[in-house]
Design brief:
The chain has 157 residues and is mainly alpha-helical. It has eight helices and two strands.
């Protein structure tokens, strides 16, 4: 860092304090945030959020968590990503918005990974009848709409 005048150092310190405060206030919401996914519907009119909630909690369909279980399975990876981003905010001056966004990207990747790993091994298989009807043995993937709708938003900054 270049040599700063006292006034420049004061301004730099204020900017860093504001950035750290943003990082502390910020929340990364991952999954099917209403502000990004709320209007998406399937051909039959059912919302993506409704279908996602049904599978996440096993409401009327077999339980296949694509949020809670993957984050529990990959909590060490998420903790490492969070620690790296916090370090970059505090020590390198990375903007809070960028750091929180990168945490969101990592979390989305983990959630979407559940679809290719059968819930990191936790999802029950689909019935033979379902396999025959859809012509595939992939669990929870038919059109890809639910998986492709998983995203993140940064709130509170």
């Amino acid at each position: 860092m270049a040599i700063l005048t006292p006034q420049q150092m004061l301004e730099h310190t204020k900017e860093m304090a504001q950035n750290i405060a943003k990082a502390q206030r910020g929340v990364v919401a991952v999954g099917l945030p209403k502000e990004k996914v709320g209007s998406k519907v399937y051909g039959d009119g059912e919302t993506v959020i409704s279908v996602g909630a049904s599978h996440e909690y096993g409401a009327g369909v077999p339980w296949r968590s694509f949020l809670r279980v993957p984050f529990q399975e990959k909590k060490d990876d998420m903790n490492d990503a969070i620690a790296l981003q916090w370090s970059d905010v505090f020590e390198r001056g990375k903007k809070a918005e960028r750091a929180l966004g990168l945490i969101g990207v990592q979390a989305v990747d983990i959630s979407k990974g559940a679809f290719t790993s059968r819930g990191y091994g936790a999802w029950p298989d689909i019935s033979q009848k379902t396999k025959d009807a859809k012509g595939s043995n992939q669990v929870l993937i038919d059109t890809g709409t639910l998986r492709n709708s998983i995203t993140y938003v940064v709130r509170g900054i």
